[in-house]
Amino acid sequence: VCSRWIPLNLTIAQKKARVDWCKEMLKKYNGGASKDVYNIATGDESWLYAYEPETKQQSTVWVFQDEPNPTKVVRARSTSKQMVARFFGKTGHVATIPLEQRKTVNSEWYTTICLPEVFGEIRKTNKRRRIIIHHDNASSHTSAQTRAFLTGQNVELMGHPPYSPDLTPK
């Protein structure tokens, strides 16, 4: 069993807001049976780190009883990292969009590069398809620029309860 880390203790009101949101989504989408669930694309950003760790088995060596253990130089982990946004729908992966090296997400990137690519992938099969976006409450997701862009694209924004990182697709 894996658990998700929540960065603070939730108040009773925050817990209630989370439960209310979940109940509202279950009702709105008929417990997942509604065809509208196929219109939902959920996404989030995270850092991908590149390194090549050696497993315990790979670092095992044979020595005779009277031989000293060999000295092993440990490889330093790579400092390479890449921020990516990835989106999924009911049927699986929709898009993965990388940012420039060592950059972080902002509204400009989100509305000019990320979301247009996601919408393009979704609309490849049906240009008139309704899109519902679910993302967390990060500033780049809730900015006036992002809201205006979504309205202009005729995309519905699914709400997200505050302090609920465990309800996003990490």
TrEMBL record:
Annotated Tc1-like transposase DDE domain residues: 111-169
Segments traversing the membrane: none
Highest taxon in the source lineage: Eukaryota
UniProt xrefs under Gene3D superfamilies: Ribonuclease H-like superfamily/Ribonuclease H
Gene Ontology MF terms in the entry: nucleic acid binding
Pfam families linked to this entry: DDE_3
The name this protein goes by in its record: Transposase
Native organism: Diopsis apicalis
